[in-house]
Amino acid sequence: MSSESTQVCCAMSVMDSPVGSDFKRRIEEISGESVLKCYQCGECTAGCPVAFAMDIAPNQILRMAQLGLENEALSSSAIWLCAGCETCATRCPKGAALSKVMDACRQIAIERGIKPREPNVLKFHDEFLKGVKRFGRCHELSLTACYKMRTRDFFSDVLAGIQMFLKGKLAILPSIIKGRKEVRELFPARESGKGAKKRHRRG
Ligand code: SF4
Ligand code: SF4
Known about the structure:
Layout: H1 3-11, H2 22-31, H3 43-47, H4 58-67, H5 70-74, H6 78-81, H7 87-91, H8 98-111, H9 119-135, H10 140-151, H11 158-166, H12 180-185, H13 187-202
Bound molecules: iron/sulfur cluster (SF4) (2 copies).
């Protein structure tokens, strides 16, 4: 985390945050999670497998949500690097589902047209969701093919891809789940988020 952001977080308290800030309210609306549950013990960050690569630690993203520090949280690379593994939720003594907060932050960033620092992350995110909508779950091989087509980056990670294929980690055909229709029905809410983004841009 940048020292400037750390100083802002340390200098503010929840009591200083704008009462019922839009950012906090929108996160709670999307995630169904109360951000005020968190008391900053740091257990989530200690167990997060990708915290080492994040610019802002997972517990600090939650702190920013409490404080209404919208721009700082939404412009971080941390919200896009979160793998949604839910280790944080498992470790949290308050039962806070931080992974849902990260997911909500991504959705709000898309709605507000805030671009991730790593330009290809959004393309990956988009292709991943399209695959889940199509098959009901992720199919890594088609995800990789669609992502490569969109980024025109055909040769990076080729060796890793071959190794995964040889170890049977990349199935040729997708496995289509029984509840595909129910999974598809979850998507209109997200797609209305895209509408909100367009409205925001027009506004
Ligand atoms: S483990 Fe839970 S309470 Fe502790 S910092 Fe993380 S989200 Fe907050
Ligand atoms: S869900 Fe995200 S924030 Fe939580 S432990 Fe996994 S990668 Fe880290």
